[in-house]
Amino acid sequence: MFDFKELEAFVWVVRLGSFRKGATKLHITQPSISDRITRLEDSVGESLLDRSARPVQPTLRGREFFTHAERLLEGRDEAMRLFQDEESFSGTLRLGVIETIASSWCPTFMRRLAERYPQLTIELMVDISPFLHQRLAENDLDMLFAMDGLVPGLCAIQTPLCTFEMGMFAAPELAAALRQGDMATFADTAFISFSKQARPYSELVAYLTALGIDTPRIHSTSTLMTIMRMSIEGLGIGVLPVATVRDAVDAGSLERLTLEEPLPPMIYDAIWRRSNYPSFCASVARLAKQCAADYAQDHGKLSSPSTMKGYVDT
């Protein structure tokens, strides 16, 4: 069976009417281009060129084959442009994102992604990291922005995306009570965190255990906005990514509590399957990383946290 190199040799010799000119066009030697065409003729079982003519001319069957050869080369070039011209990408990207990202810089990212790839169709799934990793492993997603790294055995690519500093926040009245209280007051107060299957929940439990709070009361929910809303209503101490509550803190709806030891940060990666648009997904990951950096810069340091007695800095 012939290959594209042999087709290119044949097409350019016909177009230019010369083995020498065809070789120059393809940046190979004249014996090499002659050898390619000989292999092509052996594959099809007929002579395709009249070598005695000047300029070189295709045979009767060669003229017919020339039309098909051009179409094959054009089809190859069109197929390769899918990978070389990212702006013209017109497929469907099945993207999974964790709720923290969906509630922070994802809207800006989606807008910029649509501007860069106007023919792109996006199927967006918002869920906790374990479920997103499962969907990626089952090939229900092409790409995800989540925690927990690569699933063992999955043929995928991983690159760092962003890090969210975590903090504890309370409504002003509750924050004032905590400032006047002690460790027992803190331990008796309810906490509000993400769902039990999410890493921030287990990390909060481990953090409180290290403080000697073995049976904390933790309200759990799947959405960041619900944690924030419950915290503003004074239902407990919200454990939230610092950057995402900037507006609530500036408005005086929440106050940040100072802790002796910082909470573990939320570290996110972009992960995509090697078999699903790998070059395109790498470009998407770079755009996402830039959007995350822009968000972090716009939602920088908060005002000084509230100080509480007994277990925080004095």
Task: Please characterize this protein's 3D structure.
This protein has 314 residues and is an alpha/beta fold. The protein folds into 3 domains: 4-81, Orthogonal Bundle (Arc Repressor Mutant, subunit A); 92-164 and 266-299, D-Maltodextrin-Binding Protein, domain 2 (3-Layer(aba) Sandwich), CATH 3.40.190; 166-265 and 302-313, D-Maltodextrin-Binding Protein, domain 2, CATH 3.40.190.10. Helices cover 47% and strands 18% of the residues. It is built from 13 helices and 12 strands. It has helices spanning 4-16, 19-26, 30-44, 60-84, 99-102, 106-116, 129-137, 172-180, 183-188, 199-210, 224-232, 246-250, 278-298; strands at 49-50, 57-58, 92-97, 121-126, 143-146, 156-164, 166-170, 191-194, 218-221, 237-241, 255-257, 266-273. The strands form 3 sheets. A 5-stranded mixed sheet has the order 4-3-5-12-6, with helices on both faces. A 5-stranded mixed sheet has the order 9-8-10-7-11, with helices on both faces. Helix 1 crosses helix 2 (19-26) and helix 1 (4-16) crosses helix 3 (30-44). It is rod-shaped.
Summarize the structure.
The protein is an alpha/beta fold. The chain has helices at residues 4-16, 19-26, 30-44, 60-84, 99-102, 106-116, 129-137, 172-180, 183-188, 199-210, 224-232, 246-250, 278-298; strands at residues 49-50, 57-58, 92-97, 121-126, 143-146, 156-164, 166-170, 191-194, 218-221, 237-241, 255-257, 266-273.
